[in-house]
Amino acid sequence: MSAVGRPAAGAAQGTAGGPPAKLDLIGRAGAGPRQDSAWSARQILVTNLRAIRGRAYPRWRGLFREKSWVAFEILLPFLSTSAFVFVYRSLHAPEAYVGFVVLGGVMSAFWINVIWMMANQLWWEKSQGNLELYFAAPMNFMSILFGMALGGMFMSSSRALSILIIATVVFGVSFSISSWLLVILVFAATLAALYGVGMVLASLFLVWGREAWHLGQMLTEPVYFVAGLNFPVARLGLIGALSVGLIPLATGLDAMRQLVFAGAPFPIGTPAPEIELVILVAMAVGSTALARWMLAVMERRARRDGRLTIRWQ
Questions:
Q1: Which residues pair with 176 in a beta bridge?
Q2: pLDDT in tens, 45-54
Q3: What residue spans define the domains of the chain?
Q4: Distance CA 15, CA 229 (A)
Q5: Average pLDDT in the chain
Q6: What H or E segment, with its residue span, contains residue 114?
Q7: Taking the chain, what is the end-to-end CA distance rounded to the nearest angstrom?
Q8: pTM here?
Q9: CA distances, 63 to each of 51, 56, 77 (Å)
Q10: Which of 119, 202, 267, 311 has its CA at 20 to 30 Å from residue 295's CA atom?
């Protein structure tokens, strides 16, 4: 054996009467795995930022990889939005309702991404055999979720912007924005709260397994209704008030409609946009903290019950 591959006699035997010293990969005596693997704060930060970029990259790159997906993801939501526009115009409803539908179609792109690209993603990774690699990698698992959220925001924003431009041009929607700054803040807080909820659901769906598919279906159309996707949520009365306090999609939509259609001839929402902004910020902070706690709990449970992989995989 060469000098590099052969441990020294003192290193191999350790101290007299004591246990043998731990050796590293090339046979040198070390202080143990905990001390040898101690990273600086900069190394930890860089590693987690790389993990975020690595999980966001596939969603950004996917926009340009398969062109047919872009066409379908823009066309199909636009057809659904168009149907409600034609219904309102056939009923001679106020023109603001057309804008409500268009704005609802824009925000539906984000909710679909949260349910099917965030909440179900960890279950799909588990099915493909990648989940255990994430847990074994030297990074905080929240970096994986943050990366998926950032990539999902970028992917959905491109679809949502396309729907907004096409629907505005085709249907002639006019906007009366009272405060650009408040609109931007509400939109950003809505996305943060939505993807925070997606992080919470991701940890739940990881444990529930195949039931995640059914839960994804349950959280699509019913949520569209109680969130007032195609009509003012205030029309639902008590249900609408509960939705504003519990569902970020309902809260963000109601606030943005009040700000974007300030000249509507009828009341749109009940709480003021400033109050709903505070609610959205609280939802974002609370859901992120809850996701972090739930992920740790679900990880311990999954490790204990052996659910990080699929049997016979």
A1: 261
A2: 888 888 888 8
A3: 1-38, 39-305
A4: 72
A5: 77
A6: none
A7: 40
A8: 0.76
A9: 20, 12, 17
A10: 311
